[in-house]
# Entry
Amino acid sequence: MTEEHTKPNRLIHEKSPYLLQHAYNPVDWYAWGDEAFEKSKSENKPILLSIGYSTCHWCHIMEEESFMDLKIAELMNHNFVCIKVDREERPDLDKIYITAVSALIGSAGWPLNVFLTPELEPFYGGTYFPPVSKPEMLSWPDLLNLITTAWNDPSKKKKLLSSGQELSRIVTNYLSWSSTHGPIDTRLLDNALNNFSTRFDKNLGGFSQAPKFPSPSIQNFLFAYYFYAKNGDKKDNAGDTALEMGNFTLRAMATGGIYDQLGGGFHRYSTDAKWHVPHFEKMLYDNAQLLRNYLDAFLITRNRFFEKIAKETADYVLRDMTHPDGGFYSAEDADSLPADSDFKGGDKKKIEGAFYVWEQREIHALLGPETGKIFSYRYGLEPEGNVEYDPHGDFIGKNILFTAHSLDETADKFGRSKSEIAQLLDESKSKLLKARSARPRPHLDDKVLTSWNGLMISALSRAYQVLEDERYLMAARNAAKFIQKNLYNSETKLLYRRWRKGERKIVGMASDYAFLIQGLIDLYEADFDPEWLEWALELMDQQITLFYDTENGGFFMTRKGHDKKIGLRVKEDTDSVTPSAGSVAVLNALRLARFADSGKYLTVVERTLESVLSRINSQPDSAPELLVALIISRLKPVEVVIDGDRNGEDTRSMLRTVNSFFIPGKAVMLVDNTIRSRLARQLPFISSVKRIDNKTTAYVCMDKLCKPPVTDPEKVRNLLH
# Structure
C-alpha cells in the first residue's frame, strides 16, 4: 500500500462511521462546512458532494473502484472541492440533493454524487458510476473530465450556473410547498386501498415487482383500514381485503430469505420478486417498524406465527443491536469477509451476504446427515445452492435459508411427529447460529440516532404490552434514559440527532422529535411512569414551536437556521422507508390530546391533514401513515383509565385484557395513589377516579363518554368489543 493510501484525510477527525470509512481515501475529502465552501469560492472550483451511509453496498463498491484509485483521486482533488456527507446524520441535505438529481435524471439513490456551484446550487448528479465506461453507463473519470471542461469554458460555465439556479428554484418550490385548505374527503381512504390493491402481488405478496421492499407504513394503513371498515358504516368486504393483503405480505416476508431464519430480524430488501435473495444489510428502522407490524397482525388474528416472528425480531435487536448503556445501534452491513474455509487465495475481499449463506455440506457436517436432511428440506437447501437470481455471482454453490416447507409437511416427509420436528429444528438453529457467530461479522454502524431509537423504543414498548416479556420493557426504558442523558439538553429542552463514542452532534430534526415522542407515549403505556408522558408533552410543544408551519400547516424537517448555508426548509408530504415526521407528529398529537386535553394539538392535526391531503389528493397511497392519522381522527376515541396497584396481579390481568385488543389510537392510563396528583395536573378528572371495593377498577370511555366502572377484566373485554 502506498503512502498516499495510508495517510488519512480530514475525515479522520469525524465520528460518523461512514465518513471514517473514507478517512484513508487518497481523495482530499472535506466534511460539510465552511472550510470547504470557502475553498470552492476562493479557488473557483465546483463542489463534488458525495452522500451515502456506512452500510451502503454500492457506496463500498464505488469507494473501492474509484475513491481509492490514485489517478482518479488526483483528478477529483485537482478540479473539485470534494465533500462527504452521511445521509443518516443529515437527511435534510440528502432530501434536497436527491430531489435535485431525481429531477435531472428521473431517479436517484446512493451513493449520491452531486456537482454544485460554490453557492451550493446543484447542476448535475447521479448515483453509482464505474471506473471504466460500460454500455449505457459513463465512467466516473469521463464524467469528471466533462464537467471540468465545461466549468473552465466561460460560455458553458454560464449555462451550468444558470442550470443550477433554475434547478434550485424547482427544488425549493417542490420541497417548501404551501397548500390550499378545504374539507377532507374520506374517500381518499378507499382510493388509497384501491391503489394498493392494484399494486398488490397476489401470488408473492408485497406491492411491487423486484426489487421488493418491506412496507411497514402500508401495513399500518391496511390494518387501520380493516378496523375502520369493521367499526364504521361500510357494508362491503374492503376491510377483509385490506387485512388479507397485509397478513399475506407479512407471512411471505417472514418465510423468505429477506428474514434471517436463524438469528431473527429483517434484511433491507429483496432483490428478487420471491423475497428470497435479500440485500443483506439490516437497518434498525426496518426492524422497529416491522416488529410493530407483526405485533398488530398477532393481535388481530391471534396467529402464533406472527407472535413468533415478533419475538425473534425483538430478540435480535436485544442481542446484536443494543449499546451496553442502552441505546440502539443503527445498522449492520450487507458485506463481510468470507470464512477461512471459503478463502481460495489472493486478497481477501468482503462479499455480499457471506455471514449469512451456507453450503449444504456445512449444514450436514454441523448437524449430522439425518438432521441435515430434515433441516435442508425445511429451509430449502440444495447441494449446488438454491439461489436462482445471482447477477454478481456472489452466491455460487451457496444457500439462502427460507421456509420451503411447513412443519406439517416436514413431519410427514420424515415420518415424525410435529412436536419432535419442531424441537429438532429449534436445536439445529441454535447450533447453526452458534457456528455462524464465529464467522467474520459484518460491519456494525454503532452510531445512535434519536429518531431511529424512538421507533425501536415504541416497538419494544408495544412488544412488552402484547408479549409481557420484561426484557423488552427494560430495553425500551434503558434506551429512553440513554437519549435523555446523551442526546437531550435539559436546560435548553433541545434534542440532538446523533451520538457516537461520547460525542453528540447535529441539533434534532422534526423526525427526532416525532419518533421519540411516539416512543415515549408507548413507553408510558407500558410502565406508566408519568415522567415519560410529561417528557413527551414537553417535546411535542417544542416540536410545534420549532417545526410547525403555522401559516400553511404541516411540519418542516428542520428548524429555522438549522444550516446557515441552506435557507430552504424542506416539508415532507410522503412516507418512505420511514414515515414522514409530519405523519407521526399528527398521530402523536391525536394521542396526546387525550392525555393533556389540549385543543391546540387538535388544531395542528386538522391543519396538517387538510394541508397535506389536499396536496396528495391524486396519490393518497403516497402517505399511508397520514391516512392512519385520518382514520384515527374520524373514529370515536377509545380511552381506558385503570385505578389500581401497578404491581398487583389484578391490575396486570386488567392491562393484559386491554392490551389484547387492536384499537388504533386507543389511550390507556394507570392511576395509583403515587402518581394521581401528577396526572391530574394535565387531566383534572383524574382526581375523581376511584376504586370500587378497593379493587382494580377500569373506566372505559368512548368519544368522551364513560361507561360505568367495572372490576372484572371480562366486563372490560365486553365493553371494548
Remarks:
- Residues 290 and 303 are 16 Å apart (CA to CA).
- The chain has a mean pLDDT of 93.
- Residues 154-175 form the longest helix (22 residues).
- The two ends are 70 Å apart (CA to CA).
